[in-house]
Amino acid sequence: PWHLSKEEFRELDMLPPEVGFSVKDNVGVSIPAGSTSVVLPDATIVTEETGPVFREVRDLAEKTGRKVCMAQYQDFSEDLDPVVAVPHPLMTFRKLEKLREASPEFSSLNWGVISPDVAMVNVNQNVIRESTWGGSDFEELLPRLMPAGFTEKQTALVYEAWRCVDEALQGWPQFWGLRLQDSGMRLRWLTKPFGMEVPDFEFWLDRQIYRDATPDPLSAFMDLSPSQALEVSEAYAGMVEKISQAGKRLREAESGWLDEQVNSLRTLELFWTTYRNLLGFWGHRLSGTPEAAAGFARAEIRNVEATIDHLAAHPETVVVAGKGAWGQCFGPDLLDEFRQKLRAMENIHIANML
């Protein structure tokens, strides 16, 4: 419904009354994006707020006695795809509270639920399970989310880590181009080398669902000015720091139960660092400050090296297609993409900048 004009929206009630409506929970909600705010058609896991479009659809449905389904992302989301089992139990808890508050006739969990063979420990799903028993305070729920034998100190450390993740998600400037799934995979900005002239460009073009040949991400899908890109880069730096703190607290808790969360958060940290470096590089490159751009490129070389090492050791932290076209997601040659990016940036870009 976010694509409909007001006139077209009102015409929906001309449909047969047995046709019900389904709408995402936070369509049209206003969220912060750096020094300004934006209204988005889709903000899946950065806010729990119920958007105005859901309320408008519900009001329209009530006039003709239709049923309404409220669709939510409470676990694996488009924003975080392809990273598996990022722990955001506080966001999931608040989303469930909003679901109770709205009390629709039907609800759906969009984007599915990650199965146990993919993520053996998934606290977001544990929140969904435990919340069926009611309760409106997360701290009351907290002990039931911990494994047997956890000490108060371990629980406190884990809770602090989850709050860090929650703060990072809520501080994420959001629009289509900043989601990992869209610019990261569909346009391959996670694995594409930085620079105006990318060697072997067809290699990455063949892996894009859009086959977009625009050399910089600001004019391709993101629609950012150089100054905005630098502001968003700083926002990512803060998000990366929060995720780093979360990983540190989980490691301090010293439990094998937390290993999956630690590893998934490290993957998210590395991917977000690429976004920080990418936007910093292009913001400075297009602002006429090449020395600063070179610094972000050098930082990305180090980050890609760390990404390759981490994903080689923990491939289970990302969803990877086993076969077929990979424009919508990463394929089995994911590490090859990162290695090719690393070689290109080492052999050409830094040499030209120094």
Q: Can you describe this structure in just a few lines?
A:
With 354 residues, this protein is mainly alpha-helical.
Which tags fit this structure?
single chain, 354 residues, mainly alpha, two-stranded antiparallel sheet, 6% strand
Structural description of this entry:
This protein is mainly alpha-helical. Helices cover 52% and strands 6% of the residues. It has 13 helices and five strands. It has helices spanning 6-10, 52-64, 89-102, 123-131, 138-145, 152-170, 180-186, 201-205, 218-222, 226-252, 259-285, 290-313, 334-353, and strands at residues 21-24, 30-33, 36-39, 68-72, 106-109. The strands form two sheets. A three-stranded parallel β-sheet has the order 1-4-5, covered by helices on one side. The protein has a two-stranded antiparallel ribbon with strand order 2-3. The radius of gyration is 21 Å and the shape is globular. The chain starts with 5 loop residues before the first helix and ends with a helix.
List the helices and strands and how they pair.
Layout: H1 6-10, E1 21-24, E2 30-33, E3 36-39, H2 52-64, E4 68-72, H3 89-102, E5 106-109, H4 123-131, H5 138-145, H6 152-170, H7 180-186, H8 201-205, H9 218-222, H10 226-252, H11 259-285, H12 290-313, H13 334-353
Parallel strand pairs: 1-4, 4-5
Antiparallel strand pairs: 2-3
Helix pairs in contact: 3-4, 6-10, 10-11, 11-12, 12-13
Strands ordered across the widest β-sheet: 1-4-5
Number of helices: 13
- Class from helix and strand fractions: mainly alpha
Series of H and E elements = HEEEHEHEHHHHHHHHHH
N→C terminal distance = 50 Å
Q: List the uncertain runs.
A: none
- How much of the sequence lies in strands comes to 5-15%
